[in-house]
Specification:
The chain is mainly β. It has three helices and 22 strands. The protein has a single domain, classed as Glycosyl hydrolase domain, family 43 (Tachylectin-2, Chain A, 5 Propeller).
């Protein structure tokens, strides 16, 4: 039978309909492996980078990418790069020195000033092996988050775990742990990223049973601010212990006095999840707060640890909450959207 001829506009409409149907089918008729590929973009499972021993992660965001600096091998600091806080690529070393004993780095991007990057390092005091209180904090500077960082100054002796907080008015505050006569968290004003100002003030020391369970320790300070309240988050008891955990205290001033939250610790061991602590907090691609921290590999007293990530948030009353997970698929920090079709393998 003879087919009836179609007009040009009918031909165009027919082709468009075919394209729409094909696109719909390719987007939704996925094989199981394709569904799994998309799930990877929106979920995570701790530990991250399981094959690597690392601890004390600090993360900054620059130009849409995240840069992480962990305690690595004590000989140098390396940087890892991510687009989503979950999938990390090892870029390489950014700093080393002859003193060794490098722990707990933090990098501050001076966006409101000279635009440079300031690395606050903990290393061994000259002429020592870096045991117990034989540690010091210094600062090095670079023009890029990828380094190389060059020594600028030594700040404090007998100390570890530097943290720099910039307030809304641009003022800088330096927090650290002084080791003589116990693990005390100190606070001090800064004139600029390489110059301390005034006198240091003790703002915290171990007082609670959970902070003393395996060594009397308060360390790893990290400041958050919400509605005029300063939240000094920290880790308690020995870092080599499975009982290491996270708590916080609040104040109306960055210099204290800080009052510890009665519900501490807000993160602690649970089942096979051991020794969660020494965290940083950063906004994820989903615009929510995320905590990167480490967990221990076993119950034995050791420093074998790995990277982890989990959410941290404020409730309507200003109470800070966090959770720690291990071995379960959790909703990730990525935006809730499908992966681009060109990243999906079709039949």
């Amino acid at each position: 039978m003879r087919m009836k001829s179609m007009r040009p506009n009918q031909i165009i409409a027919s082709k468009l309909s075919s394209i729409i149907v094909a696109t719909f089918l390719s987007a939704f008729l996925l094989v199981p492996s394709e569904v799994a590929a998309r799930a990877i973009a929106t979920t995570y499972r701790n530990p991250l980078l399981e094959e690597m021993d690392m601890a004390d992660p600090h993360v900054i965001k620059v130009g849409g990418k995240y840069y992480m600096y962990p305690t690595w091998n004590t000989k140098q600091y390396d940087v890892f790069i991510s687009d989503d806080l979950v999938n990390w690529k090892h870029h390489g070393p950014v700093y080393s020195n002859d003193r060794r004993g490098l722990w707990a780095p933090e990098v501050f991007h001076n966006k409101r000033g000279d635009g440079k990057f300031y690395l606050y390092f903990t290393d061994n005091m000259p002429g020592t092996r870096g045991s117990y209180a034989e540690k010091q904090i210094g600062v090095a500077v670079a023009n890029s988050p990828l380094g190389p960082f060059e020594d600028k100054a030594i700040f404090v002796k007998n100390s570890i775990d530097a943290h720099v907080f910039q307030d809304n008015d641009g003022k800088l505050y330096f927090y650290y742990v002084h080791l003589l006569d116990g693990f005390k968290i100190m606070a001090q004003e800064m004139a600029d990223p390489v110059t301390l100002k005034g006198e240091a003030k003790e703002v915290m020391r171990p007082t609670e049973p959970w902070e003393k369970r395996n060594g009397e320790v308060t360390e790893g300070p990290f400041i958050l601010k919400r509605k005029g309240i300063y939240y000094l988050t920290y880790s308690g008891t020995g870092a080599d212990s499975p009982n290491y955990g996270i708590g916080y205290a609040t104040s109306k001033s960055p210099m204290g006095p800080f009052v510890k939250y009665e519900g501490n610790p807000i993160v602690q061991r649970k089942g096979q999840l051991l020794g969660p602590g020494h965290h940083c907090v950063i906004e994820g691609p989903d615009k929510k707060l995320w905590m990167l921290y480490h967990q221990k590999r076993s119950e034995e007293r050791s420093f074998k640890r790995y990277l982890a990530i989990d959410p941290i948030w404020f409730d309507k009353n200003g109470v800070l909450h966090a959770k720690a997970t291990k071995g379960t698929d959790e909703p990730g920090p990525t935006r809730k959207s499908f992966a681009p079709l060109h990243n999906v393998t079709r039949r």
